[in-house]
Amino acid sequence: MSYQFLQLEQHGLVAYVWLNRPELHNAFNTTVIEELHRCFKQLAIRDDIRVVVLAGRGKSFSAGADLNWMKQAGQACAEENEADALKLAQMLEALATLKQPTIARVHGIAFGGGMGLASACDICIASTDAKFATSEVRLGLVPSTISPYVIRAIGARQASRYFLTAERITAHAAKQIGLAHEIADAEDLDKKVQEIIDALLLGGPHAQAASKQLIQMVSNQSMDNQLLRQTAHHIAQVRQGSEAKEGLTAFLSKQAPAWTSNSNNNN
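Predicted structure:
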């Protein structure tokens, strides 16, 4: 599959999705959004991919929306404007709901939609030189489509500050507020990403997909009988599966489960 502004690489069981518009700090336009959406949809049906890493070529992860594209969208009629915004929202949803664990490898700037991409990933690993921002209000805009993922990452209280001030968030501050899980010096960024990949490959792929579904199901739900029944039903289904039986048998017999040997063979 060919792309104009993306590079897709596979290393063993890991897919690396590289934003490749470095001259514009990997800013979004219609083509970038469409290509990302198509790429995520294709990865979602591939069983030979266990982990997806999202990264950016050049000096930055992503500067968010291409301002020329945003200006053109704002001048379109209401229906076209909304349809254009919906494409961005659907792309972010495709990333957030991938069955595979996802890692954002962030360096340089991750502003606006770039911060949205980082937040939509399950895990964010940032270089110490990374800077994040929901910069929309300084342009008279609102971080609407990225808001579900950013608020999920940092909470409503922190979002109240950064959505309104558009302050730049350093890597250290990003870790403090829960946006970045880990930070590393630029020369150690790939090493840190690999450490997380190695940890992820020790887990069962179906269990990880089910865990992602579990988080979505439980988040922001009231602790009532319905939620208790949902969680009980969820684990009951998972533990009846072949992967759970393999994992428990391997643990009790003090052996490695089959998926770890498969991972090692592909590294």
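Summary: The longest strand covers residues 6-11.
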